[in-house]
Structures
1.
Amino acid sequence: MNPHAEDWNDEIPDGRGGRGGLLLSELLGRWHWIALMVVLGWAAAWYYLAKAPKLYQATATLLVKQQSSGVLSK
């Protein structure tokens, strides 16, 4: 035990000290919120990219002149 610990956050039973261990365990305990935020972020990015104008888009029209010969023209 740390004799200079003034706050309960200074000493954590896992031996690592600091708030890092407690924060990580709380986040892993709420994994469904993390998964929800990832899914919502993915959906928002997909929606934005679907609605954003396409900057580098081109179209081309090819005109081909057909010369028929022989079979039906006799």
2.
Amino acid sequence: MHLYQRISNIAVAAFVCGAVFAGRPASAQTQVQTGQVVISELRLRGPAGATDEFVELYNNTDQDVVVQATDASAGWAVVVSNGQFTGTLFTVPNGTRIPARGHFLGANSLGYSLGGYPSGNPNTTVAATPNAVALVPFATATPDATWDIDVPDGTGVALFSTASGPNMNAARRLDSFGYAGSPALFREGTGFPVVVTADVEHTHYRDLRGGRPQDVGDNAADFLLVATAVGTQITRLGAPGPENLASPVVNNTTVGGTLLDPAVGSSSPPNRERRPNVEPNADLGVLLIRRTFTNNTGAPVSRLRFRTVNITTAGTPASECGGSPCADVRALTSQDGEAGVGGQVVTVRGVRLEEPPAQPNGGGYNSSLSADFITLGTPLPHGQSVNIVFKLGVMRQGPFRFIINIEAQNAPTPVVTPPARNATLRVRR
């Protein structure tokens, strides 16, 4: 479900929950139309230089997608062009299954620097002993496909339902992202207006502020440009968050969020609390928001995190707050604690601002917050709940929003071989 918070003032606020995405799919589809699988995030350089590149695809449907080319070729192709050269970056092979609301990640093997960003359940067997089983907490955002050429700044990127060059045309184009100077087949609308030429930690990502990923057929309107440090070219605070096939998927309906204490208002303690504690990225204190999340997926949840899809932070224009200067809040790592609910004391768990990338200015758009204590070894059973506290550092007061997506993943069934020398844990999916 989609978790909304639209606050008219730092002192007076509401936290509203609403369902946006449907639950888990019952079947898979192979016939994909334009807009059903889209380019959701990308960059063509980064802090590691010109080859610090990635392109993320997103299944924008509530069914798994099984890739099948619309001709006799090997699959779908992600292709780049700047008008002088055109070439395939990578192919998504026929038979690849992209989960409902899931991702496929391609990256440059020569410079991609975000391979350590957390993903989902580990997909490798791990060592076991007769007395204990060692579980790797999370996999990382390693690419599902790679390339090894530098894509020049300002190049357009397109996804085609074919890997055959002669058949790459508008009829077989599933999506594209380009700039004003990109060829028409490799952009939508007039293209994105800003070409990043500095080696900074940044990303172009599809705007999620309206609920679903925005796709009005205009790259300038559909994408936001964010960076971990705002500057001349990039004015909104945020972070890249590349996701691959192993990443958790949006579960906004099957992992429901409610007030920690339903007997009081959303703006009252313990549901929300303002503290004067000054710390890095919290010059004016912090705002604590406490909620309860319940696993209604029908299976144990082994990975749970929250992605910030809308926040008023550094670079948010006043036009998004009715003309008044927006509050500047930063998502921060929160700590475990306790709160009083109905005369009883309950435990509330903290969440971690995920790195890499390093976020010295706190989390903004597209930053993710992980419930690290939920893992393959310690999953959240179906029907059970966990209390979570979010912490926002306040840098400027005013109207603010804090909207998140719930990303979750169900645990596979672990099968451990009988105790023996060199025993291993086998994970059946």
